[in-house]
């Protein structure tokens, strides 16, 4: 239909991918403890629903903020008129301090370098508009968040060239993978404008090591390109290891006011750490004044509601609340993740060792009929339609190896998680027994060996990792 | 050592053309007035000689009604004890379909503001980041880079950014003239269409703002029909920005394109789209409630996916759905708003009439289109700019010059009247009175009391302390003023 743009007529929004199709199936038959106990359990939604009680308690104690009042007086009128794209100053200040707190106050964020956006969806797209021409490319390590295909490419015309990461080293970014991706872009005649990483990673749930971040900073420095670090999950780190932000590394390398630092941009949002995706609060942090200036003007296309800015500025300014929240959030995430991991282990399934995020990266390679993406899709369909769990297949995240799945754990109650694990265990056991019956002994041994080998390789590769500097 | 100039050049190469260019439109001299206001904002007690902001099309006349409702309905907030039981559900709600109750309430509101003459389907309501986001989304949906939209002049300056900046779409002006009250004629449309063709710009649609910004006029039924027919015949889209729908004064009626499409046989509705927002009719620009309403299913589908880039905060959706579902409140609000707008409009126009200053007859809007052509030294835009600088810096009123709206004829100014209280309006009128009487003193006495005054061109340079050396422009993005809003008390409180 030539009356509509090519953006409409093509499917570049990426929403035909299996990632979204699983959601559609869930929508048709959603699990409900009482009303629909046989429905599909949503494990494909990276949401944090574990700490609403903390926020609700805070609201009860803070009637002014809750009622859009200041010193007991309604400021609704003033808020209703406030549309300054620079944002509410006290909100940006509180947001900057919150970001600092998440990073152990080791680095500082200047509120004037923050640009607000309608969620990180908008923040990432805006950065693309600022840094890339149509046809330019950004390098992204695989696997990556499926939404990037829409956010980074759809309306901007930018391209994504994958940096292939493999399970052989826990999906870490290597120098050779980076260089290969860069060369691949050049072969495709695409100008590389930068690298975008999500740290902690979605879908892996792992944090980038200091070594990897150093590698990235050196790489962009030598190539004179940008680095975008989407740190949307920075407040979901629950392990013993500290979160290392790209800002930490810039500081440690004494690059804080350098030319390179101007090409490093951080994306943040309150959707995951605070569990408030409905409020649409995203942010771009950049040391480049021109990026800040251009992005600020672009934010007109997706400003944060003043009502929301006011509420959150009060919430985040309460340091007692933020420190309690961050601690408690981490504790609860850790417990819930452990429940998922042990539930999967009981079914003979392992995950990539992780200590962040709202999901696990699950290794189901041994459950595939063949080592192919077709087999992965077949397995996925079984899990969605028969086991009634909506999980996300690795192929939707552009993983180069079939058999990996992202499974979320923070968007449901403990009971629901237990039920999900029960269903899954039943499924694996029934397929195992079917496998045992149908396969010959030779094949049985081969498949057992394959499973053991993969676990062994996994464990060995883990200890081979270079110990991180603290 | 790399020189600063080279460094800057390198910077420019590192950023996209979109980011390093001035497609955002904020380098226009239009913003000089904002700057003057921001540096010296009027306050009746603290700064009685400050600049009065008359360049901001905001509806502040019914804020008291709004505040009262919010205080009376704590359950509309998900944060108060009355409403917190909905907190977690709403906080996680990011479905780009929007809360069903929100869409239903907005559809109902749109119907009420069109005198219930049409029905709006809640399933066609798509959210956006204000009308700003809505326009950009529509442009992305209907046009490819290099395509064009026809836009009647004068038009809202923000369209240059909203429709063109990141989309690569062109705007092709449809010239309208004061001689027929700036009507949009088929001749003008055809001429513009032909211009586009000659410039190799494929025309994809026609965008009209109805009621008009900056004119305040509304399109009558016949004109609307002619626009629908013109666009249908050419197979191009018609986008009606109806953001000022409920700002018709007193008893004046607003006819929506939605009403007209029902009356045209064989109308191709796939080509009809409406942009709407609550920023003007309800005076809630800070809440960022923009709407794309399309009769084209595919456009609804895709615009909805694009709305991910500018969803309305679920907290706000919840508040608005509660507010707009209160039909008694809505009816009272709309009625009261129109009365207050009518009164304020009457106040300013009576004042101007008494001073012999002309203005375009209009029935809607938060502003009027003032005729100062007779005060220009020459019928040029340079002259208009000179006069404007006098008004901003000497008379201390930030009004908007017609040139910034791409008006074809110099000498027109948009003057907003709904963003201030009564006392401020009185002060503004007094300043205009003083200004015009000073001009009278400098010229021979004239006997002329007609509204579209044919006064002798006044020489307004001599006695007033004027400075025309101040022709600086904003050169680059670093020194752009704030986005065009006044220093809010929320911001001031911090400094």
From TrEMBL, chain A:
Its EC number is 4.4.1.14. GO terms for biological process: ethylene biosynthetic process; fruit ripening; regulation of translation. Pathway: Alkene biosynthesis; ethylene biosynthesis via S-adenosyl-L-methionine; ethylene from S-adenosyl-L-methionine: step 1/2. Pfam families: Aminotran_1_2. Keywords: Ethylene biosynthesis, Fruit ripening, Lyase, Pyridoxal phosphate, S-adenosyl-L-methionine. This is 1-aminocyclopropane-1-carboxylate synthase. Residues 41-423 form the Aminotransferase class I/classII large domain.
UniProtKB/TrEMBL annotation, chain B:
Residues 52-432 form the Aminotransferase class I/classII large domain. It is an enzyme of class 4 (lyase). Pfam families: Aminotran_1_2. Pathway: Alkene biosynthesis; ethylene biosynthesis via S-adenosyl-L-methionine; ethylene from S-adenosyl-L-methionine: step 1/2. Its EC number is 4.4.1.14. It catalyses: S-adenosyl-L-methionine = 1-aminocyclopropane-1-carboxylate + S-methyl-5'-thioadenosine + H(+). It comes from the Eukaryota. Its cofactor is pyridoxal 5'-phosphate. InterPro entries: Aminotransferase_I/II_large, Ethylene_sulfur-biosynth, NHTrfase_class1_PyrdxlP-BS, PyrdxlP-dep_Trfase, PyrdxlP-dep_Trfase_major, PyrdxlP-dep_Trfase_small. Keywords: Ethylene biosynthesis, Fruit ripening, Lyase, Pyridoxal phosphate, S-adenosyl-L-methionine. GO terms for biological process: cell division; ethylene biosynthetic process; fruit ripening; phloem or xylem histogenesis; response to auxin; response to ethylene; response to jasmonic acid; response to mechanical stimulus. GO terms for molecular function: 1-aminocyclopropane-1-carboxylate synthase activity; identical protein binding; pyridoxal phosphate binding; transaminase activity. Belongs to the class-I pyridoxal-phosphate-dependent aminotransferase family. PANTHER family: 1-AMINOCYCLOPROPANE-1-CARBOXYLATE SYNTHASE 6, BIFUNCTIONAL ASPARTATE AMINOTRANSFERASE AND GLUTAMATE/ASPARTATE-PREPHENATE AMINOTRANSFERASE-RELATED. This is 1-aminocyclopropane-1-carboxylate synthase. It comes from Arabidopsis lyrata subsp. lyrata (Lyre-leaved rock-cress). The lineage of its organism: Eukaryota, Viridiplantae, Streptophyta, Embryophyta, Tracheophyta.
């Amino acid at each position: 239909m030539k009356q509509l743009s090519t953006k409409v007529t093509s499917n570049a929004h990426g929403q035909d991918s299996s990632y979204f199709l699983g959601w559609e199936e869930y929508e048709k038959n959603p699990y409900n403890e009482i009303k629909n106990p046989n429905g599909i359990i949503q494990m494909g939604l990276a949401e944090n629903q574990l700490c609403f009680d903390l926020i609700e308690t805070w609201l009860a104690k803070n009637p002014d903020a809750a009622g859009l009042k200041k010193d007991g007086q309604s400021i609704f009128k003033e808020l209703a008129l406030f549309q300054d794209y620079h944002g509410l100053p006290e909100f940006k200040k509180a947001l900057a301090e919150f970001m600092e707190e998440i990073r152990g106050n080791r680095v500082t964020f200047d509120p004037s370098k923050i640009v607000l956006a309608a969620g990180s969806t908008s923040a990432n797209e805006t950065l693309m508009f600022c840094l890339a021409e149509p046809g330019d490319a950004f390098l992204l390590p695989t696997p990556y968040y499926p939404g990037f295909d829409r956010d980074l490419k759809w309306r901007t015309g930018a391209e994504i060239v994958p940096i292939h990461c493999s399970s052989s080293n826990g999906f870490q970014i290597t120098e050779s993978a980076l260089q290969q991706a860069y060369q691949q872009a050049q072969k495709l005649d695409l100008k590389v404008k930068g690298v975008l990483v999500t740290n902690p990673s979605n879908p892996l749930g792992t944090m980038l090591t200091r070594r990897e971040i150093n590698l990235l900073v050196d790489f962009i420095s030598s190539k004179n390109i940008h680095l975008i670090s989407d740190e949307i999950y920075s407040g979901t780190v629950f392990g013993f290891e500290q979160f290392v932000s790209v800002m930490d590394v810039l500081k440690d390398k004494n690059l804080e006011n350098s030319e390179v630092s101007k090409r490093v941009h951080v994306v943040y949002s309150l959707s995951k750490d605070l569990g408030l995706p409905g409020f649409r609060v995203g942010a771009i942090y950049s040391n480049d004044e021109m990026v800040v200036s251009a992005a600020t003007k672009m934010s007109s296309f997706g400003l944060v509601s003043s009502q929301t800015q006011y509420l959150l500025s009060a919430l985040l300014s309460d340091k007692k609340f933020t420190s309690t929240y961050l601690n408690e959030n981490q504790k609860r995430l850790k417990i819930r993740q452990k429940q998922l991991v042990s539930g999967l282990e009981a079914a003979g399934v392992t995950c990539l060792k992780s200590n962040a995020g709202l999901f696990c990266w699950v290794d189901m390679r041994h459950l595939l009929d063949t080592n192919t993406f077709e087999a992965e899709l077949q397995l996925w369909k079984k899990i969605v339609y028969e086991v009634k769990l909506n999980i996300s297949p690795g192929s939707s995240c552009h993983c180069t190896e079939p058999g990996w799945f992202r499974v979320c754990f923070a968007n449901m109650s403990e009971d629901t998680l237990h039920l999900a694990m029960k269903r899954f265990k039943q499924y694996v056991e029934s397929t195992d027994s079917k496998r045992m019956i149908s396969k010959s002994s030779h094949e049985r041994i081969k498949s057992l060996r394959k499973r053991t080998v993969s676990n062994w390789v996994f464990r060995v590769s883990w200890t081979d990792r270079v110990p991180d500097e603290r | 050592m790399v020189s600063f100039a080279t460094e800057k050049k390198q910077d420019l190469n590192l950023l996209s053309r979109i980011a390093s260019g001035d497609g955002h439109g904020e380098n226009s001299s239009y913003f000089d007035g904002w700057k003057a206001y921001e540096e010296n904002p009027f306050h009746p007690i603290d700064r009685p000689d400050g600049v009065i902001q008359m360049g901001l099309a905001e509806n502040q006349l019914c804020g008291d009604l709004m505040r009262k409702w919010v205080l009376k309905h704590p359950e509309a907030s998900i944060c108060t004890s009355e409403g917190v039981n909905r907190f977690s559900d709403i906080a996680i709600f990011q479905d780009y379909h929007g809360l069903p109750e929100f869409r239903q309430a907005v559809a109902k509101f749109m119907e009420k503001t069109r005198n219930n003459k049409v029905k709006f389907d809640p399933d066609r309501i798509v959210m956006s980041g204000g009308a700003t986001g809505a326009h950009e989304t529509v442009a992305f949906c209907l046009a490819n880079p290099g395509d064009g939209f026809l836009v009647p002049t004068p038009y809202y300056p923000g369209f240059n950014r909203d429709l063109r900046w990141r989309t690569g779409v062109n705007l092709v002006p449809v010239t309208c003239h004061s001689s027929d009250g700036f009507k949009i004629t088929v001749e003008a449309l055809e001429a513009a269409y032909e211009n586009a063709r000659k410039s190799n710009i494929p025309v994809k649609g026609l965008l009209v703002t109805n009621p008009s910004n900056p004119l305040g006029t509304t399109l009558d039924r016949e004109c609307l029909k002619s626009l629908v027919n013109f666009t249908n015949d050419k197979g191009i889209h018609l986008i009606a920005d109806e953001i000022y729908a409920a700002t018709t004064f007193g008893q004046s009626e607003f006819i929506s394109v939605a009403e007209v499409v029902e009356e045209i046989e064989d109308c191709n509705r796939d080509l009809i789209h409406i942009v709407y927002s609550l920023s003007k009719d309800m005076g809630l620009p800070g809440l960022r409630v923009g709407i794309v309403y399309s009769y084209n299913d595919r456009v609804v589908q895709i615009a909805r996916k694009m709305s991910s880039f500018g969803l309305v905060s679920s907290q706000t959706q919840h508040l608005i759905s509660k507010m707009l579902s209160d039909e008694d409140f809505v009816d009272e609000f709309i009625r009261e708003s129109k009365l207050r707008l009518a009164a304020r409009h009457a106040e300013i126009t009576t004042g101007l009439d008494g001073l012999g200053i002309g203005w375009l007859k209009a029935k809607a809007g938060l502003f009027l289109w003032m005729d100062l052509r007779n005060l220009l030294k020459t019928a040029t835009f340079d002259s208009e700019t000179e006069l404007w600088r006098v008004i901003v810096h000497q008379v201390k009123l930030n009004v908007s010059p017609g040139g910034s709206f791409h008006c074809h004829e110099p000498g027109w100014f948009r003057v907003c009247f709904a963003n201030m209280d009564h006392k401020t309006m009185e002060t503004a009128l007094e300043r205009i009175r003083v200004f015009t009487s000073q001009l009278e003193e400098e010229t021979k006495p004239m006997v002329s009391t007609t509204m579209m005054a044919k006064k002798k061109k006044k020489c307004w340079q001599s006695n007033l302390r004027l400075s025309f050396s101040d022709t600086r422009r904003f050169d680059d993005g670093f020194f752009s003023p704030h986005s065009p809003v006044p220093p809010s008390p929320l911001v001031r409180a911090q400094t």
